From TrEMBL:
It is found in: Membrane. GO terms for cellular component: endoplasmic reticulum; Golgi apparatus; membrane. It catalyses: L-cysteinyl-[protein] + hexadecanoyl-CoA = S-hexadecanoyl-L-cysteinyl-[protein] + CoA. GO terms for biological process: protein targeting to membrane. PANTHER family: PALMITOYLTRANSFERASE ZDHHC11-RELATED (PTHR22883:SF22), ZINC FINGER DHHC DOMAIN CONTAINING PROTEIN (PTHR22883). The DHHC domain is required for palmitoyltransferase activity. The keyword DNA-binding does not apply. Its main location: membrane. Residues 438-453 have a biased composition (Basic and acidic residues). This is Palmitoyltransferase. It holds the Pfam family DHHC.
Length: 453
């Protein structure tokens, strides 16, 4: 089912992908759960119901003692019969909107929805496919290709839409099926316990008077007794118990879910739309913070994934450096000073690696040359007072910092006549103060500068 969010949420009968397969809406609108084609979930449901009913009333209840036998017939039989009735009603009823049932001809093929003409199937409470005015909670189901009043969901087990006309029949179907499963489990557990305690209690039927072998059991009592061995009864009992447990788990969850929906006054369709909107808002909020994304990608992994490898240490150090740079570059709130913000947000230098700590120290320090503007309009560069000592940095950072702190070996001097000449400054860095890599690069820069001069 394809849901559309907006001012008019609707289920658009267009081609949709279901597990990679293209699913087209039926050209002829479905009337109820018995309209062709039948869904295989519906076939499985009726096959399981008939199988469990035959095993319950034909095999297991006749094994009970006389008093419990009649009680089981009345209670279990009443629950199974009630389930059969409400199940048939939920499948047979037409949940379409009143105007659809009043004016629609189900024998006529439905048109294909053209989204180039209309944004939604239902707009301003008018369905462009059914050509009728509908209620506010009416949705157009892609599986039935008709407007369903009070649309809750399309149930494959009854092969029909669940709306306001048949919701309580559907709810009663689920509740009665759960109660029937509980009764069947109680009967099976009683028979299992009595078989190990006193098997004679299970052979009280008059037809067992002619059976002398204790390993022989009678099925389908009292009308059509069939003699079988104990192993056959055990296999049938295990299969029925397995189906019963699986069905009880599924039906129990479904029953609790619909009780929750009724307590919240929601339909299944409204619950799904609400859940999708909440998930979408969470994803959008997560995308706004880059630090959160990097933490999810690096730091929230296990210690064995990153902490034990050299690559993991580099990744953590890079992330901590990025977080500090991000917090320094983020505008500070007006009610908190800059120093307090840095103290609260930035990571300590002891938690960083060597390369990350050196890079962070370079970033945090002010520029070693601050620009001072004179009253005459000129400007000179003077060295800042807060320059750190080179011994506190690593090898790579110290080499890079020395090049950054030194002025260019050729400074430009402007003459009053308007010309300019390049002269070598006295404080050019010596090659001995640089690292091996920068020492090899420096002569190349000097030669090129002299050729230009």
């Amino acid at each position: 089912m394809d849901t559309r969010s907006g001012s008019q949420c609707s289920v658009a009968p267009e081609a949709v992908l279901n597990n990679g397969d293209l699913v087209l809406p039926p050209r002829i609108s479905r009337v109820n759960g018995w309209s062709l084609p039948l869904h295989y979930f519906q076939v499985v449901t009726w096959a399981v119901f008939l199988g469990l009913s035959s095993a319950t009333f034909g095999i297991f209840i006749p094994l009970l003692p006389h008093v419990w036998k009649y009680i089981a017939y009345v209670v279990t039989g009443g629950i199974f019969f009630f389930h059969l009735v409400v199940h048939l009603i939920a499948s047979c009823i037409d949940p379409a909107d009143f105007n659809v049932r009043l004016m629609k001809n189900y024998s006529q093929p439905m048109p294909i929805f053209d989204r180039s003409k209309h944004a939604h199937v239902i707009q301003n409470q008018f369905c462009h496919l059914c050509k009728v005015t509908v209620n506010k909670k009416t949705k157009h189901c892609i599986s039935c290709n008709k407007c369903v009043s009070g649309f809750d969901h399309h149930c494959k087990w009854i092969n029909n839409c669940v709306g306001s006309r048949n919701y309580w029949f559907f709810f009663s179907t689920v509740a009665s099926a759960t109660a029937g499963m509980l009764c069947l489990i109680t009967i099976l557990l009683y028979i299992l316990v009595q078989y190990f305690v006193d098997p004679g209690v299970l052979r009280t039927d008059p037809n067992y008077e002619d059976v002398k072998n204790t390993n022989t059991w009678l099925l389908f009592l009292p009308l059509f007794p069939v003699q079988v061995q104990t192993l056959i009864v055990v296999i049938i009992g295990m299969v029925v118990l397995l189906l019963d447990l699986l069905g009880l788990v599924q039906l129990g969850q479904l029953l609790i879910f619909h009780i929750y929906l009724k307590a919240k006054k929601l339909t299944t369709f409204e619950y799904l739309i609400k859940t999708r909107k909440e998930e979408s808002s969470k994803h959008q909020a997560a995308r706004k913070d880059p630090c959160t994304q990097m933490e999810e990608g690096f730091l929230q992994q296990g210690d064995g994934a990153l902490g034990s490898s050299a690559q993991g240490d580099k990744a953590k150090n890079s992330l901590l450096t990025f977080k500090c740079l991000y917090h320094h570059s983020t505008p500070l709130p007006s009610d908190k000073s800059s120093s307090e913000q840095e103290a609260d947000d930035e990571p300590s230098l002891s938690s960083l690696g060597v390369n990350a700590r050196d890079s962070l120290q370079i970033y945090r320090r002010p520029s070693p040359f601050s620009s001072t503007v004179h009253p005459e309009g000129g400007s000179t560069a003077q060295e800042a007072d807060g320059v750190w000592s080179l011994s506190s940095l690593g090898v790579n950072a110290r080499d890079s910092l020395q090049i950054y702190r030194r002025p260019s070996p050729f400074s430009s001097t402007v003459h009053p006549e308007g010309g300019s000449t390049a002269q070598e400054t006295d404080d050019a860095p010596s090659l001995s103060s640089l690292g091996p890599q920068q020492e090899r690069r420096q002569p190349m820069k000097t030669d090129s500068a002299e050729s230009e001069a």
